[in-house]
Recover the amino acids of this structure.
């Protein structure tokens, strides 16, 4: 059974920083892409930052220059460093991994989500 567990959300003032962490565990054969999405109230879930299957990074225009995604492939972990936070960054942040469990087919997995609230 594969699980993604996030941590690091919270309440911060505008201009502050937070660091999110996500760990994938279970019987994993390979991780092909891993990253972060977010969903604000009344809005659709959107990409924030990901590592693609080719190993490159992809950021939403709204977070470029403020957020940095990093990873440790050996430990199946990914982090999101969020600086210069704005109230519009307030959302539930979800870790996503496109991975292949041992003996199964590739599919998307999601964490439970962690709330990030930025006050003005």
């Amino acid at each position: 059974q594969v699980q993604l567990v996030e941590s690091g959300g919270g309440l911060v003032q505008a201009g502050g920083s937070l660091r999110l962490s996500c760990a994938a565990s279970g019987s994993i054969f390979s991780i092909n892409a891993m990253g972060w999405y977010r969903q604000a109230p009344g809005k659709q879930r959107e990409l924030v930052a990901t590592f693609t299957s080719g190993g490159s990074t992809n950021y939403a225009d709204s977070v470029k220059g403020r957020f940095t995604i990093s990873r440790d492939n050996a430990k199946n972990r990914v982090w999101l460093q969020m600086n210069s936070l704005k109230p519009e960054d307030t959302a539930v942040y979800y870790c996503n991994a496109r991975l292949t469990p041992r003996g199964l087919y590739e599919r998307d997995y999601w964490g439970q989500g962690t709330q990030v609230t930025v006050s003005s």
User: Anything to note?
Assistant: The first strand starts at residue 3 and ends at 7. The radius of gyration is 14 Å. The chain has a mean pLDDT of 96. DSSP finds no helices and eleven strands in the chain.
